[in-house]
Structure formats: structure tokens, C-alpha cells
Amino acid sequence: MEVYEGKAKKVIPIDDDKAIMEFKDDATAFDGVKKAQFRGKGWLNAQISAKLFKLLEEHGIKTHFIGVAGDNKLIVERLQMYPLEVVVRNVVAGSLRKRLPLPEGYELPEPIVELYYKSDELHDPMINHYHAKVLGLSEEELKEMERIALRVNEILRKFFAERGIILVDFKLEFGKNKKGEIVLADEISPDTCRFWDAETKRSLDKDVFRFDKGDLIEAYRELYERLTGEKVQA
Fold first, then answer.
1. pLDDT at residue 234, rounded to an integer
2. Is 38 left (phi over 0), alpha (psi -120 to 50) or beta?
């Protein structure tokens, strides 16, 4: 069985139904132009993803998460993945500043959902429903992914707000299982989300690495401790 290796994760099939998702200590930004390694990053992303997948499952969201297989490994359901990233934005930040005449930090009156085609060669371009349907997705599939994404936003936004953290935006990926169900997949971590401290607007995500805002592991460790209530040994 073929092993898939991306910039931050490795997916190792166990059998026809399950796989190991291994989180690496690598960090990349700007289409891989900026690279580094941070000891402990893989562990933090795996544990944070496991915690958030469990939370979503408790609220009725079907995910590919099965269990924790080790410090930086999760057991996940194998899916037929969609070549799509679904991004939900609550606050103006990142690339949205280039598309709307609004300042960074502006809280949107309602969440914005964006679709991106997963392609390193094309640099993950933003697309709309018409483009997605040309790529083989149906209108029903797109609407279901957007529905799930907005529900995930409701759950996570409340969860993080209770811990003094703003969920600025985040990326989700989906796959289809053998029953034909659309299932939330990939990861939910500070690699794929923007988190700001509610009082200081300090970044607790990969922007710390992207824009040299401080110590990446300290930011990820603080996020983990605030969402779990558990201290991480340095």
C-alpha cells in the first residue's frame, strides 16, 4: 500500500479501512519557501487534533478520527479524499485582506466560506461552485461540506471563546467513506487554523513561524494547555 507524505504529515495505510496519520516536526510557509523543524510540534498537532476531533464527534460531526496511536500518531479511517479545502473565516486576516477593503482584525458580520482546489502545482487557487463541479463534485456534496464546516465553526468558536481565544479562520478537508458519507478528515491544529488571544490578539498558530512573531513551540504549547487544562513538560 502506498504511503502518502506531505509537508507536515505522513499517512501510512494499515489495511483497507484504517491508516496511521503521523505528524512531523516540520514547518513550512509560503508554498514551502520557508522551512524549519521544531522539536515537539508533531506531538502537539496530533494531540490538539485528537482533542478537537473528539469534541466534534461529541457534537454529532462525523470525522475520520479513530484513536491515538502514539505521541505523534493518530489512527484514522481511510477515505476517498476530495481535492478541496474548505476555509471558514470569522475575522479579517491573511489573504482576505487582499480581497476586501477591511482592516485586519475586523470581525465579520457572518462567517465567510471559501473553497480552494488542492494543487501544489497551481498553488491551491480559490474556486467557486462552478469550478468545483467541473472537477467532479456535485452541488449536493458542496452544500453538505459547507453545512458541516459552518457547524464545526459554531462548535469550535464557542469552545475557544470560553478559553479566551478567538477562532479567526481555519481550513477543513473532507473525504467520502465506503458508505458514501461525507466525513471530516485531515487535521484541526494551529497549522491549519488561526487562533488569537482574545485580549492581546497575540497569534497562537503558524503565523508565529510565518512572520517571525516569536517561539512557535511556546505558542502551540500555550494553545494546548489552554484547550486541555494540562501542562506540557518542556
1. 63
2. beta
